[in-house]
Amino acid sequence: MQAIAPIRGEGLPAAGRLAVVEDGAALLSAARWVLRGATSNERYATRTEHDELSRRQRPLGRPEATRATLIPITKSAEWWALSQDERRALFEERSRHIAIGLEYLPDIARRLHHGRDLGEPFDFLTWFEYAPAHAGAFAELVKRLRATAEWGFVEREVEIHLARE
Q1: Domain locations in the chain?
Q2: In whole angstroms, what is the distance from residue 106 CA to residue 4 CA?
Q3: Are strands 154-163 and 67-75 parallel, antiparallel or unpaired?
Q4: Of the candidates 102, 101, 82, 157, the residue with the CA atom closest to the CA atom of residue 124
Q5: CATH assignment of 3-9+36-163?
Q6: How many Cβ atoms are within 10 Å of 18's Cβ, its own excluded?
Q7: Checking DSSP bridges between strand 67-75 and strand 3-8, what pairing results, if any?
Q8: b/e for 59-85, b at 16 or more Cβ within 10 A?
Q9: CA nearest neighbour of 68 among 164, 165, 162, 132
Q10: What tens digit of pLDDT does each residue of 11-41 get?
Q11: What gap in Å lies between CA 79 and CA 89, rounded to an integer?
Q12: Fewer CB within 10 A of the terminal residue: the chain, N end or C end?
């Protein structure tokens, strides 16, 4: 683990390393903290956006992508009180979340995990992978997303930078 920092709200305790466990594998009892999420359908993407994301997205785990950033996010009760169409309008029509993300594909691969329906402290676990040469582009991507109207609904956000050697 290279760095862990709270962006908004409470952070997470420092940890020496991070293990990504998939498919319900047993978790280590000695873990300092555990974050759980499930992949799901893209709830705010239209068919056209979904198809374009799928076309441009590169696979996770590619050898050159030795950098990763995990960003757990919790949104406010006000966000969840909005209807699905109101959240979609804020997410894409006003904030251009998908359109901004598409600009950084295929260099920055991503996967979203949902934790809210599992009763987890974070609503979303956003996972990004990229080559060291694209670290600046990743920083630009998150800066642009954090400047949107949608990010006004974020209550808690932690940024965890990782490197695979």
Answers
A1: 3-9+36-163
A2: 25
A3: antiparallel
A4: 157
A5: 3.30.70.3420
A6: 15
A7: unpaired
A8: eeeeeebebbbbbbbbbeeebeeeeee
A9: 162
A10: 998 887 777 777 655 566 667 788 888 888 7
A11: 12
A12: C
Q: How far, in Å, are 10, 61, 63, 165 from residue 23 at the CA level?
A: 28, 16, 22, 24
- Straight-line distance from the first to the last Cα atom of the chain, in angstroms, rounded to the nearest whole number: 11
What does the block give as tokens for 100?
């901004």
The amino acid that residue 105 corresponds to is L
How much is the pTM? 0.91
Q: What are phi and psi of 64, to 5 degrees?
A: -75, -15
pLDDT digits (tens, 9 = 90+) for 28-76: 666 778 888 888 877 888 889 888 998 999 999 999 999 999 999 999 9
